[in-house]
Every structure is written in structure tokens, then in C-alpha cells.
Specification:
- By secondary structure, the protein is mainly alpha-helical.
- Helices cover 74% and strands 10% of the residues.
- The strands form 2 sheets. Strands 1-2-3 form a 3-stranded mixed beta sheet, covered by helices on one side. Strands 4-5 form a two-stranded antiparallel sheet.
- A hairpin with a 2-residue loop joins strand 4 and strand 5.
- Helix 4 runs antiparallel to helix 5.
Length: 226
């Protein structure tokens, strides 16, 4: 399995040390690991083989090898692979939900971490990952559902629109919260989300250029035949 460490994580660690919030950051990363284990177990259960692990500033990401048969079985305008990706994406937040339910029902601690902090950390991780910005889980789930309903090309277009509208709304809300609470952690999270959106916007524009070239080639071929 290939392991990739994003160097931006050291920037986050340094800032959280300076602001004396490194303990909270450590707890969030711990439960982000369990979140990712949920993805991994779901992927293995669905027949995938893990082949990569990325350690990012706000969590981890597991990559899988796919099989040809997952592409061949159609589900409306998507494939079996699309449906499996939706299930895998949903399994991470569901893992956090399981932690929340267990610690709500039973007054226990977790490796010395209080029950309330465990619940709070898992709520934050689940909510963050369900934000409909690709490649977060919420973005992957939305993109997968759109792919099945409208096809790959339209799924990219709608995902692009949803991500940009979402980040605009979050920026407006976060600006008010940051001014009132003066919490640098919120600013870091917002900056990271903008990084994801900008990176994905570049990929979207590249894909659009490819689609346009294919469309022009098809037009040329039709004109030649006629």
C-alpha cells in the first residue's frame, strides 16, 4: 500500500501548538482514523483492495483498486462501481454516528478521553465530512447519486455548482463566526475547504476542455461522413 503524507499537515500542527489547541487536533485526528477505517472495511466488504493511504491536514483517505465487472454492470446512467463508491463514502460518517450512539447510551471514557469530548469530536468529523464539497464524503455521495440519475458529465457539472455554492455560503457564515469567536481553527478549516474547491474547479475545467474536444471531433467525423 502506498502511503502519502501531505506536508500541509505540519503547518496545521504548528498553528494548533501555538494556539494551544493541539490536544483537540490530536483527538480529531484519532477519530478521523476510525472514520477512515469505516471506509476501508466497507471497501474490503464490497470486494475492493486498498492500495493507498493519504494523511491530510484534516483526516485520512484510503484509495482502492477496482475490478472491471464494477464498470460493466449498469445502474440507470451509472454503474455498480458508482453505487459502491456511494456506500463506501457513507460508511465513514456512519462510523462516527456509531461512536456517538454508543457513547450517548453508555457513560464511558475512551483511552482517558471523556465521553462528552468523544461525542463532540465525532459530531464535528461527521458534519465536516458530509459537507457537499468534493472530494469530502458529502461531495462523493452527491456526485455518485447525480451520476446514477443524470450521467457522468452532468454529475461533474452539478457537483461543480454545488461545491461553489456551498463554499460561498460557508464563507459568509464562517466570517461572522470568526469575527465573534476569533477562533483560528475555523479559519484554517475554511482555508482548507477553499483549497479543495479551487483544486477541484481546475480539474473540472480540464475535463470540460476534454469534453469539448471530443464533441468537436465527433462533429468533424459526422461532417466527413455526410
Amino acid at each position: 500500500m502506498k502511503i502519502r503524507l501531505h506536508l500541509k499537515i505540519f503547518v496545521f500542527i504548528a498553528i494548533f501548538i501555538v494556539t494551544r489547541q493541539i490536544g483537540i487536533y490530536g483527538i480529531l485526528m484519532l477519530f478521523a482514523l476510525f472514520h477512515e477505517l469505516g471506509h476501508m472495511l466497507a471497501g474490503i466488504f464490497l470486494g475492493f483492495k486498498p492500495n493507498s493511504l493519504e494523511i491530510m491536514p484534516l483526516g485520512l483517505s484510503v484509495g482502492f483498486e477496482s475490478k472491471v465487472e464494477n464498470y460493466n454492470k449498469k445502474i440507470k446512467k451509472g454503474t455498480l462501481l458508482t453505487l459502491k463508491k456511494i456506500i463506501i463514502a457513507a460508511s465513514g460518517p456512519l462510523t462516527n454516528l456509531l461512536f456517538i450512539i454508543v457513547f450517548l447510551l453508555f457513560p464511558i471514557s475512551f483511552f482517558g478521553i471523556s465521553r462528552d469530548i468523544v461525542i463532540y469530536a465525532n459530531i464535528l468529523i461527521a458534519i465536516f465530512n458530509l459537507i457537499p464539497i468534493y472530494p469530502l464524503d458529502g461531495g462523493r455521495i452527491a456526485k455518485g447519486i447525480l451520476h446514477i440519475l443524470f450521467g457522468r458529465k452532468e454529475a461533474y457539472r452539478y457537483s461543480y455548482m454545488i461545491s461553489n455554492v456551498t463554499i460561498s455560503i460557508l464563507t459568509a457564515i464562517s466570517s461572522i463566526v470568526i469575527l465573534n469567536l476569533k477562533n483560528i481553527a475555523i479559519l484554517l478549516i475554511l482555508a482548507y475547504l477553499w483549497y479543495l474547491v479551487i483544486s477541484e474547479n481546475k480539474r473540472y475545467r480540464t475535463k470540460q476542455k476534454i469534453y469539448e474536444k471530443i464533441k468537436n471531433i465527433e462533429k468533424t467525423d459526422k461532417a466527413t461522413v455526410s
